[in-house]
Amino acid sequence: MIGQIGNERVWRVRLWNKDLGVALVTALALLAGTLLMWRTETATRSFESPDATLRLAYPAHWVSVDSLSDVLLKVEDPQTASLFKTTLSVEQRDIDPANPPTLQELLDRRVEDRSLLTGYHFLGEVETTVAGQRAIASDFAYVVQPIDEPRRPALPVVVRAREYIFVTANHSFYLTLAAPAAEFDRLEGALARIIASVEAP
Questions:
Q1: Domains of the chain as residue ranges with CATH
Q2: Checking CA distances to 38, which of 45, 54, 109, 118 falls within 20 to 30 Å?
Q3: Are the C-beta atoms of 49 and 92 separated by less than 8 Å?
Q4: Global pTM?
């Protein structure tokens, strides 16, 4: 009771315990949702090359797609909000162990090959490490026309890509992530996790 008006008593309704329960249930639901989202975003699928020279992990919801190029792996993110889907590709090339090419030589060859892409523009390079090996990462951009059919309206898509090149005793490897330019920054974390998972025994 908190007071009395005339002959009637006035009582305070205690809601503190109920409010605490609602807040606790809400907090638990938010925590569960956050954990589920984190698990979904970080769940991975493993890949190993046929000759066991390369292993890595990529996001579990990405799906395999066909490629016209000679690649070990090509997967894409079907949830990309663009006609051009975010794509990860892995290539392997044999090298001469007695006369291995330098990373700069391999990069120069790739730049020459990529120059045939529509709107190709080299954005820069940086030295790094992949699977404990010296590597070079290069960024570039180009333009694709996802739907190239007469009378079907579709705007070209500006693509931004990052390619990691590294060399082992007998092979050179090329790991390339390409995504719509507007999506690329958001994928930095996923790309870092992919590169961190790479093993080249």
A1: 3-37 (no CATH), 44-197 (3.40.1000.10)
A2: 54
A3: yes
A4: 0.79
